[in-house]
Structure formats: structure tokens, C-alpha cells
């Protein structure tokens, strides 16, 4: 196979890859280089040209590698932040639930008629804990769907991710609602 024929085949192959949406390599630069080579090359490339091409490809591969590492680090950061948000919702609502249970237990010994009033305060905090637990499961589902290679399933993963955000905000909302109910209950306590 002559160098021109090889270049033409390689260009057509890369154009096919690019048409499928794969932008992992810098396709335009490689296609332009190969098209120029097809039009100007009369013989096989000189060793100097081969080395220059190798250097260009190595440089492009290093750029791609750095970009990939940056994306991977950003993904790790997003996952870490999401885990912290889930833990925060769980700890806020869980801690408030435990505190209210302890307070209600103390009330049942000293002021039993007030127990129903304060037991209603426990509901939003308990729901917040439940939402945080469900959020953990939906987060797993979201990542599992994102790992798929099928586009429709990836869209479902995106929808699950939006659901995760909503559940997290709802968990924080339950904590806020519980605080308001606790404030009202303590105001009427005196």
C-alpha cells in the first residue's frame, strides 16, 4: 500500500469515527494533515516528517490525557460534594429527631399532657431522615444509569440526578419545617 492510499484510508476512517460523535482525538487537525499529505506527497515520508508527525501525535495525546485527568478530578469533586450534602441532610434531621425523642421522653415523665404537642414536631425531622435514606438509594441508581452506553438510559440517569437534587433540597426543607414547628411548640410551652 502506498503512503497516499494509507493516508486516504486513515482519513476516511477518522471521518467515520468523527461522524459518530467521538471527539476524543483532535480529528480536524489530523484530517487536515492527512488531506494535505495526500495532495502533496509524491513518495513515502522522510524520516524527519515521520518524527515530526510522531511528535505532533504525542503532543495531542498528552493534551487529551491532561483534559481527561481534569474531567476525572472534577467528577470526583462532584461525587464528594454530593456525598457531603447527603450526609448533612441525614445528620441534621437525624440529630434533631434524636434530640426531640429525648425531649419527648423527658416530657412523658414530667409533663405528659405536652407529649402530643411535641410529638408533632418529630414528624418533619423523621421525614427528613427518610428522604435522606431514599436519596442515597436514588444516587446509586443515578450513577448506575449514567454508566450505561445507551443514550435513553443516560437520559434516565440525568432525570434520576435531578430527582436526587430535589430529594436533597426536600430533606433540608423538612429540617426547616421541623425547626419552625419546634419553635412554635416551645413558644406555647410556657
Walk me through what this model shows.
This protein is mostly helical and 190 residues long. The protein has two domains: 64 residues, no CATH class; 108 residues, no CATH class. The protein contains five helices and no strands. The chain starts with a helix and ends with a helix.
The parts where pLDDT drops under 50 for at least 5 residues are: none
Strand content: under 5%
| DSSP summary, beta strand count | 0
> In angstroms, what separates the terminal alpha carbons?
95 Å
* Radius of gyration, CA atoms, in whole angstroms: 30 Å
Helical amount among residues, as a percent range?
over 70%
Question: Strand count, sense and closure of the main sheet?
Answer: none
Secondary-structure topology with pairs:
Blueprint: H1 3-19, H2 27-40, H3 47-110, H4 115-146, H5 151-187
Describe the structure concisely.
By secondary structure, the protein is an all-alpha fold. The protein folds into two domains: 3-66, no CATH class; 80-187, no CATH class. It has helices at 3-19, 27-40, 47-110, 115-146, 151-187.
Keywords:
single chain, 190 residues, mainly alpha, 5 helices
Amino acid at each position: 500500500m502506498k503512503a497516499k492510499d494509507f493516508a486516504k484510508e486513515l482519513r476516511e476512517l477518522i471521518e467515520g469515527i468523527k461522524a459518530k460523535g467521538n471527539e476524543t482525538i483532535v480529528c480536524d487537525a489530523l484530517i487536515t494533515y492527512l488531506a494535505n499529505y495526500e495532495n502533496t506527497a509524491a513518495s513515502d515520508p522522510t524520516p524527519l516528517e515521520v518524527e515530526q508527525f510522531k511528535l505532533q501525535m504525542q503532543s495531542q495525546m498528552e493534551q487529551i490525557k491532561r483534559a481527561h485527568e481534569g474531567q476525572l478530578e472534577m467528577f470526583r469533586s462532584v461525587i464528594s460534594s454530593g456525598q457531603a450534602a447527603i450526609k448533612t441532610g441525614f445528620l441534621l434531621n437525624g440529630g434533631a429527631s434524636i434530640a426531640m425523642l429525648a425531649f419527648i421522653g423527658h416530657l412523658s415523665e414530667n409533663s405528659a399532657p405536652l407529649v402530643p404537642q411535641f410529638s408533632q414536631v418529630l414528624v418533619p425531622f423523621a421525614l427528613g431522615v427518610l428522604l435522606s435514606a431514599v436519596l442515597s438509594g436514588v444516587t446509586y441508581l443515578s450513577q448506575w444509569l449514567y454508566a450505561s452506553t445507551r443514550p435513553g438510559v443516560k437520559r434516565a440517569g440525568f432525570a434520576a440526578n435531578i430527582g436526587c437534587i430535589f430529594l436533597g433540597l426536600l430533606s433540608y426543607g423538612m429540617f426547616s419545617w421541623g425547626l419552625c414547628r419546634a419553635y412554635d411548640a416551645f413558644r406555647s410551652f410556657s
